[in-house]
Amino acid sequence: MSVESTDAIVIGAGHNGLTCAGYLARAGLKVTVLERRDVIGGAALTEEFHPGFRNSVFSYLVSLLDRAVIQDLDLYKHGLTLLERPGGSLSILDGDHMYLPRDLNGAQQALARFSKADAEAYGAFEDVLESLGDAIRAIASEVPPNLGGGLGDLWKLLGQANVLRKLSAERQADLAELMTMSVGDYLDRWFESDPIKGLYGFEGVIGNFVDPYAQGSAYVLLHHVFGQVDGRTGAWAYAKGGMGAITQAMANSCRAKGVDIRTDAGVKEVIVENGKAAGVVLEDGSVLKAKIVSANVHPQILFGQLIDPALAPERFAKRIDGWRSESATFRMNVALSELPRFDSVDHDEAGLTAMKNTIDICPSLDYIRDAYDDAKRDGWAKGPIVSMCIPTLMDDSLAPEGCHVMSLFCQHFRRHLPDGQSWDDVREDVADHIVDTVARYSPNFRQAIVGRQINSPLDIERKLNMVGGDIFHGALHLDQIFSLRPAPGHADHRMPVHGVYLCGSGAHPGGGVSGIPGRNAAREILKDVKRRRVA
Questions:
Q1: What is the pLDDT of residue 221?
Q2: Which residue, 160, 208, 212, is CA-closest to 184?
Q3: CB distance 289 to 279 below 8 Å
């Protein structure tokens, strides 16, 4: 059995683990990253899934990636290129479509076909989301105060409260509503027509298995609009070469700073001696010693598989044991011999511009509610919510000339199926069901498919160790965000075992390819190093 030593261990080479490692190495620590799979990237991964066809496997769009992370780790220098999409979303309807471009006048003209009142209300609605997106970004970028903490936590609370104090009284009221209301009730206040409510209603159930009228679901809408691309709030982009280009750039940055990144290096156990981290035991029996262990894993993997929950306080252990994780997400990629043609969309320059953005099948709040009810009863939606992207319209490196790849992000598909069914038995049939749903609106879609890649909720759980197939490492519900993520008293990334830190999406601000949990965990680790609390 080999025994080595390092200053800091990072478990998991997903984007947050690599971010954390990059910041620690930047400060002069000797860092080793351990990845159980044979590839790095976690959910930010690009693969060839059919000969000549590559695409992002799990995550598929860039917006939440923090500008400071990009700059501090020199990601552009290390190979990252972002391709900003030209507009908003294209909603496919029965016999019609609605495309909302980014410019207000164009969006209002599109909305006016369905409701003049909605067109008039849209500008004020967008102003609310943009201004609150800026505020939420500022709060998301900082470590939350711990409940019951000391003077430092009080200063954090005051500093973050000051962000909100700068909002007008109206905006503070808007924020209170978005934090507590259902996305359905919130949209019903603003709009009267189904297409716009379906389009934004989807934002409240991305990776969130809830009825659209579930209290608190409006926050998930807000969570998805605080991102930006090159300073443009709410903008979205493709990573050239797929989402794996992000983690490859991070890995390049890490290696340039001396980080040792190891694949096929699954961790079996975090070594705890006298209540403190002392290193890890790998699955091959080898030991790596370190006084700092930063875990880019689901909270229930950290305390449940890698650390005995009995080593944590009883209240913390019960909290993690009851952590809710289920995003009801089914993810597909398809290789296409030709571009899909949607019946209601002209394939002229304007139509192709619209198709460079997200293409959604989510026509109404009732459609979302039916999908939820079906999945709750039967395991999956009869009318699935499908969000599609065709990155090859902007990045022709992903497919042979004249061909395309399409990602399909689908809701609602439960991790645990009723009546003893297994995803291993039904995944192909469910994938066919999703293809049939798209083919209703695109007659050439089925025939254009030459290959496909399927990831059911069970596949996501198995491959990424995301318990419940939860893409956010835990539901973004009001009792699992901010100072309550992952548990009261531990929102600062410090776990109850001294020297163990949580740097993944189970920490604030939650899921999405932001790098913020990794960066903030590294900051707290370096504070402890400076104060000689660890290492």
A1: 86
A2: 212
A3: yes
3-class DSSP assignment, residue 489 = coil
Q: What per-residue confidence (pLDDT) applies to 480?
A: 96
What distance in Å separates the CA atoms of residue 413 and residue 436, rounded to the nearest whole number? Answer: 16
Alpha-carbon distances of 299 from 270, 315, 515, rounded to whole Å: 14, 14, 17
Question: How many other CB atoms are there within 10 angstroms of residue 344's CB atom?
Answer: 15
For residue 97, the cross-strand partners are: 92
Phi, psi angle pair for 503, to nearest 5°: -120, 10
| DSSP string of 326-348, one letter each residue | ----EEEEEEESS----TTS--S
Q: What single DSSP character describes residue 177?
A: H
Encoding tokens for residue 50?
A: 């059919």
Residue 369's nearest CA partner among 213, 515, 182, 166 is 213
Q: Whole-angstrom Cα distance, residue 169 to residue 450?
A: 55
Q: Is 214 helix (H, G, I), strand (E, B) or coil?
A: coil
Supply the DSSP symbol for 533: S
Strand partners, 281: 269, 287
With beta carbons less than 8 A apart as the criterion, state whether 87 and 100 touch: yes
As a whole number of angstroms, the distance between CA 506 and CA 473 comes to 5
Chain centroid, CA 71 distance in Å: 21
Closest CA to 518 of 527, 508, 530, 529: 508
How many Å apart are CA 88 and CA 199, to the nearest integer? 10
Give the distance between the most distant pair of CA atoms in the chain: 72
* End-to-end Cα spacing for the chain: 24
Q: Is 102 left (phi over 0), alpha (psi -120 to 50) or beta?
A: alpha
pLDDT score, position 164: 80
pLDDT lower than 50: segments of the chain: none
- Rounded distance, CA 476 to CA 510, Å? 7
The span from the CA of 24 to the CA of 3, in Å, is 22
Distance CA 367, CA 143 (A): 37
CB 506 within 8 A of CB 487: no
Alpha-carbon span 378 to 454, nearest angstrom? 20
Question: Do the beta carbons of residue 44 and residue 241 sit within 8 Å?
Answer: no
| Contact in structure between 54 and 45 (CB atoms under 8 Å) | no
Phi and psi dihedrals of 258, rounded to 5? 95, 10
Dihedrals phi, psi of 229, to nearest 5 degrees = -125, 120
Position of tokens 């949990």?
517
How many CB atoms neighbour CB 458 within 10 A?
A: 18
pLDDT tens digits, 280-307? 999 999 999 999 999 999 999 999 999 9
- Give the pLDDT confidence score for residue 232 in this predicted structure: 62
Tokens of 391: 């990155």
pTM over 0.85: yes
Provide φ and ψ at 254, rounded to 5°. Answer: -60, -50
Render 92-140 in DSSP notation, one character per residue: EETTEEEEE-SSHHHHHHHHHTT-HHHHHHHHHHHHHHHHHHHHHHHHH
Say which amino acid occupies 134.
D
Which own/partner contact pairs does 366-371 have at CB distance under 8 Å and 24+ positions apart? Answer: 366/194, 367/198, 368/184, 368/198, 368/201, 368/202, 368/205, 368/212, 369/184, 369/211, 369/212, 369/213, 371/411, 371/412
SS3 366: helix
